[in-house]
Amino acid sequence: MVPTRILLVDDDDFFRESLGLNLIDEGFAVTSFANGGDTLKFFEAGGAADVLLLDWRMPGMDGLEVLRQLRRRELTIPVIFLTVLSDDIYEEAALEGGAVDFIDKSKRLSILLKRVMLIAEGRRAVPDAGAGGQGTVQHGPLTLRTDTSRAYWKAQELDLTLTEFNIVVLMVARAGQDVPYRDIYDLVHGKDFIAGYGAEGYRANVRTFIKRIRKKFREVDPDFDGIGNYAGFGYRWIAET
Q1: Percent of the chain, pLDDT > 90?
Q2: Check: CATH 3.40.50.2300 for 5-121?
Q3: Which pTM value belongs to this model?
Q4: Residue 116 to residue 132: CA distance in whole angstroms
């Protein structure tokens, strides 16, 4: 079985070496760098990984800028931020930038391993949303290219991340039905994963994703109102005729 490839980026030599060795002991293939510049060069040279563990605070280029540079290059590798910054504003910035998770460095190794495994394995197929040509789903003005993970609204391309695209596919597959917060979060992180503060802390994470998706639709169509909000439950894709 081919091991899951982890790219670990952190300027703290001790932390990077310690975590890297623990990941290797757990059967992961680990490549590590101490800064963002070397990380980008790695990808430019054709390097690849299944999950990127990325420090937030690094000299020269911080983790958020590394993430932005990767997304500009259309690299969709799942990014998990590792940080000591616990304020919600940082988590929201990470998720809006296209990260899939945000983990406090003080968390136990077992928790980090669980998240890495769920995310690496979670690059799974999403439900079929409807009919169309091969690799294409057409739902009213929305076109979903499932072969390339591209979305178009009224023939204009939407700048969705892979995670955002998958969320839209899930909601369109259930058009006209309420989709619970938990179902959306499970799609991103893996079934029954627990995150945030309290039993329902994951809802803030989902709200951030939906807020960003709505914003991207409205950038191409200011009148877009295709995602309904059902307080205390979740969201609904409002069927288009």
Answers
A1: 24
A2: yes
A3: 0.55
A4: 34
